[in-house]
Design a protein that fits this description.
Elements (H helix, E strand, L loop, with lengths): L12 H10 L5 H10 L1 H14 L2 H13 L2 H11 L6 E2 L1 H8 L14 H14 L4 H9 L70 H9 L5 H9 L3 H4 L10 H19 L8 H15 L4 E2 L1
Antiparallel strand pairs: 1-2
Helix pairs in contact: 7-8, 8-10, 8-13, 9-10, 10-12
The structure holds fe (ii) ion (2 copies).
Main location: cytoplasm
Pfam families: MIOX
InterPro entries: Inositol_oxygenase
Length: about 300
């Protein structure tokens, strides 16, 4: 699976850089109102975003949209959610993720652990609750899926519901034409396999680092922190307000937390170095408030 043609990004951060291009910080508010109000121009905008993406990122979206079928998602859940791969603490998970080396330039690109600490430190600086800081610290640990030879398109990328019609508010929507589910009439009605307002907990999202980590930590954190972890890549819902017909009241409440979290994930300064050793005691203490010494991964 880990052949070059299956791994178009030079590193996982390339997708996140593309998110910044799509959702630049200054224009967040105006962009949002445009996307909510005008369905057609949203589709046109998203066509442009895809067309103007780097070829590597466009190819990444194409592979993601082509391969994330309902059956693929079910198979990955069956493969990973028994959590029997290894046992390790949260901090060990952070160090394990840090082994992720790709074709990026180590002098320019930050180690993964520093993105986690940057996010957590930005949340801490704003005086947010402990569990919010902790969600920032761990939110990308699910990227360890890459260390188990999962292709980039099955680890990162915008997530979206499978088993029902793909929203035109998903970036590079036309690439779904290559997905076998596109031709499955049962899966391509507005509701597909779901009931109206069944709640996001009952919806299968495309497989990636969010859903995996949610299952590792779901017994230990309060619901808003779990929503931040589980849905932070679900831009079609938390940024574009698609799939509202699947949501229940509690989901709307949780999406406000996810949106709140998203500013720290996207807009923390990526070039700022973190003193990992100096920060470690504070974060080890925070981790031990919520988590047991070892978790099942
Ligand atoms: Fe993430
Ligand atoms: Fe992140």
């Amino acid at each position: 699976m880990s052949t070059k043609s299956n791994q178009p990004l030079k590193n996982l951060d390339e997708w996140e850089e593309d998110l910044l291009r799509r959702y630049p910080q200054e224009s967040t508010k105006s962009k949002r109102s445009v996307t909510v109000d005008t369905g057609d121009s949203t589709t046109a905008n998203f066509r442009n975003y895809a067309a103007e993406a780097r070829p590597s990122v466009r190819e990444f979206y194409r592979l993601n949209h082509r391969h994330q079928t309902l059956e693929f998602v079910r198979s990955k859940r069956a493969e990973y959610l028994s959590l029997n791969r290894r046992r390790m603490s949260i901090w060990e998970g952070m160090e394990y993720l840090n082994q992720l080396v790709d074709d990026s330039d180590p002098d320019i690109d930050l180690p993964q652990i520093e993105h986690l600490l940057q996010t957590a430190e930005a949340i801490r600086a704003d005086g947010r609750p402990d569990w919010f800081i902790l969600a920032g610290l761990i939110h990308d640990l699910g990227k360890i899926l890459c260390l188990w030879d999962e292709p980039q398109w099955a680890v990162v990328g915008d997530t979206f519901p499978v088993g029902c019609r793909y929203s035109e508010r998903i970036v590079y929507h036309e690439a779904f034409r290559e997905n076998p589910d596109w031709n499955n009439s049962e899966y391509q009605t507005e509701l597909g396999i779901y009931q109206p307002h069944c709640g996001l907990d009952n919806v299968l999202l495309s497989w990636g680092h969010d859903e995996y980590l949610y299952h590792v930590v779901k017994d230990y954190l309060p619901p808003p922190a779990l929503a931040m972890i589980r849905y932070h890549s679900c831009y079609p819902i938390h940024r574009e307000q698609a799939y509202q017909h699947l949501l229940v009241d509690e989901d709307h409440e949780m999406m406000r937390w996810v949106t709140d979290f998203n500013q720290y994930d996207l807009y923390t300064k990526r070039d700022e170095r973190m003193d990992v050793a100096a920060l470690r005691p504070y974060y080890e203490a925070l981790i031990s408030e919520y988590f047991p010494g070892e978790l099942a991964w």
